[in-house]
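Study this pair:
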Amino acid sequence: MRNRFDEQLNQLNNELIAMGSLCEEAIANASKSIKEQNGRTLYENVSIIESAIDQKERDIQSLCMKMLLQQQPVARDLREISSALKMISDMERIGDQASDIVEIARFIKNPGKIAKIEDMARATIKMVTEAIDSFVNKDLELAKSVEEYDDVVDAHFSDIRNDLIELLGKDNKDGEYCIDLLMIAKYFERIGDHATNIAEWVQYSITGKHKDGSVF
């Protein structure tokens, strides 16, 4: 019985890795869409990836429910499965927000200087990748470092917001452009928040303690 459960846990890890890779791909395409003019193609690509993420969420939900009903896990095993169910909800939202970014980027006529947004995109990809890795490898320190790294993403957002405010002050004709870029930066910030949530659930799965102080 335990061998079967361990096989299912390994399958769960593999499914989460695959879902995380899809999220990374969606974010990378979202970042690319801001500066490229083939927005329609990238939008279609991200839509396909988003659908794949949604399917992965359903597959993982089904696997977790099967494990709960058939194996009736307790203690750390139960925490691992319940954490996975929480994590895939955040990962699904990451796919949604990457799609939202591409939708906005399609209507940006002049990408201008977006180096800081590209840096922010790379930072959010790093957070998502390491959050998933920390779950698969049961790495508590890596999960904590992801949570701390959210400050870097927040700093990127503050810098971008300040730059756009300054640009607006110089020339009001760039108002729509500034609003679009600010919304994109905000979506990247939210992706970072979702990666933080994932890292917090990883810590819970390992320690039985959540950030809010609850002990399970």
